[in-house]
Recover the amino acids of this structure.
C-alpha cells in the first residue's frame, strides 16, 4: 500500500506519537488545571511541553500564546466571528478552503462584506491587488498559506507588509504548511495562525489551534466559547488571560500528548530537512505526471512554489473512477474530488469535477512515488486504447 493522502491526514505517525498518547492514558489520565495533585500537575507539564514545542516551531516567544482547539477550523471560526462584527469588511483569496469560506458566508448573511481577491489559474496571487480592495471598514485579511488542492504557496510576507501599512491584522490558515514549511510569526508578519495538528505536524486527529503573535492585542478578539477553565473559579465572567481566554472545557489531553511528541519529532528532524524531502518527491511526481500522455497537472508545476500536493486529471476519466482504480488495482491511496475547496477549483478551472491529489509526506519514499507514477501511466494507456 502506498499512502499519498498526507494533505488530508498524515500517516503513518512517528512511533513516539501513539506511545505518548498511551503513556498519558495509562500513567497520567488527569486533567490539567483542574486539581493540584501530582497527576494533574503531570498533565499540565505535558500540555506546557506541547506549547513550548509549537512556540519554537512558529516563532512565538510566549508559549501561552499557543492556544489548543479541536482543529484549524475551530481556530479560524474563533477569529472570523470574533473580529468581524456586522458592518465590517474582510478580504480573502480565491484559493480558500471551506474552513474559511463557509464562516465568511455565514458572516455575510449577518452584514459582513466579503471581498474575494482573484488568483491566477495556477493558484498564485499578486499581493499588490490587495491595496485596491482595502476599505475604511476592512477589519481583517484572511488567507490560506498554501492551497490544499494544488499546493500553491501564497506570498504571505508581502501580504502582511501591505496589511501592516493599513493597520489590518492578517489571519493565516496554515493547515497545509505547519510542520512542513518554515513559519515564523515575527519574521513573516503573521498576526494569527490557525494550525492543524494531524497533517504536517504529524500529530493525532482532533488537535490543532491558534498561534498568536506576541504583538497582537487579544483584547480585540473575544472568545467564541465560555466555560470552565480551572482558573479564576470565583468569577462567573470568563477569564481574560491567555490561554484560558480561548480554552474553555476539558482539553483533549491524549491528543495534546501526541501532538507534543509529534512537534518535538518535527523539531528534531528539522523543518528544512522535511521540506527538502517533500520538495524532491513533489517535483518527481510533477515531472513524471507531465510525461504521461493524457494527464494534465494543475498548479504551478514547480515544487519550489508549492507544498507536497500535486493535483492532476486524466483526460476522459472521472477522478473518482481513477482514484478507485489506483486503490483497488495498485494499492495507491489518494484523494479525488473538490477537496472541500470549490472556490480554489473554480480558480484552477477544475470545477465541478475536481482533480486527483497526490500528497506525499515525510515517510513517502522515492520508490513509492515512482510506483504511483507507473500506475497512472498504465491507467492512461488503458484509457487511450479505449
Amino acid at each position: 500500500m502506498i499512502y499519498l493522502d498526507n494533505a488530508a491526514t498524515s500517516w503513518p505517525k512517528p512511533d513516539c506519537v501513539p506511545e505518548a498518547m498511551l503513556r498519558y492514558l495509562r500513567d497520567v489520565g488527569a486533567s490539567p488545571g483542574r486539581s493540584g495533585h501530582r497527576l494533574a500537575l503531570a498533565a499540565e507539564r505535558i500540555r506546557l511541553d506541547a506549547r513550548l514545542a509549537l512556540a519554537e516551531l512558529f516563532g512565538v516567544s510566549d508559549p501561552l500564546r499557543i492556544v489548543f482547539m479541536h482543529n484549524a477550523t475551530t481556530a479560524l471560526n474563533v477569529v472570523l466571528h470574533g473580529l468581524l462584527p456586522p458592518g465590517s469588511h474582510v478580504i480573502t483569496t480565491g484559493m480558500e478552503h471551506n474552513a474559511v469560506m463557509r464562516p465568511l458566508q455565514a458572516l455575510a448573511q449577518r452584514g459582513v462584506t466579503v471581498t474575494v481577491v482573484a488568483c491566477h489559474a495556477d493558484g498564485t496571487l499578486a499581493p499588490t491587488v490587495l491595496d485596491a480592495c482595502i476599505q475604511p471598514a476592512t477589519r481583517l485579511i484572511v488567507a490560506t498559506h498554501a492551497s490544499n488542492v494544488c499546493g500553491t504557496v501564497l506570498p504571505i510576507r508581502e501580504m502582511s507588509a501591505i496589511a501592516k501599512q493599513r493597520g489590518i491584522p492578517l489571519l493565516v490558515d496554515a493547515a497545509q504548511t505547519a510542520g512542513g514549511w518554515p513559519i515564523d510569526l515575527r519574521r513573516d508578519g503573521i498576526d494569527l495562525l490557525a494550525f492543524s495538528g494531524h497533517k504536517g505536524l504529524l500529530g493525532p486527529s482532533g488537535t490543532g489551534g491558534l498561534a498568536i503573535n506576541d504583538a497582537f492585542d487579544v483584547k480585540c478578539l473575544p472568545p467564541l466559547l465560555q466555560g470552565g477553565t480551572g482558573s479564576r473559579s470565583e468569577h462567573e465572567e470568563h477569564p481574560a488571560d491567555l490561554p484560558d481566554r480561548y480554552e474553555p472545557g476539558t482539553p483533549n489531553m491524549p491528543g495534546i500528548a501526541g501532538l507534543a511528541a509529534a512537534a518535538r519529532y518535527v523539531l528534531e528532524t528539522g523543518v528544512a530537512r522535511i521540506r527538502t524531502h517533500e520538495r524532491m518527491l513533489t517535483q518527481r511526481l510533477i515531472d513524471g505526471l507531465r510525461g504521461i500522455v493524457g494527464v494534465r497537472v494543475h498548479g504551478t508545476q514547480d515544487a519550489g512554489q508549492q507544498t507536497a500536493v500535486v493535483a492532476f486529471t486524466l483526460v476522459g476519466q472521472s477522478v473518482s473512477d481513477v482514484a478507485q482504480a489506483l486503490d483497488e488495482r495498485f494499492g495507491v491511496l489518494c484523494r479525488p474530488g473538490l477537496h472541500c475547496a470549490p472556490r480554489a477549483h473554480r480558480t484552477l478551472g477544475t470545477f465541478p469535477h475536481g482533480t486527483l491529489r497526490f500528497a506525499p509526506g515525510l515517510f513517502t519514499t522515492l520508490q513509492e512515488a515512482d510506483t504511483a507514477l507507473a500506475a497512472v501511466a498504465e491507467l492512461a494507456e488503458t484509457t487511450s486504447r479505449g
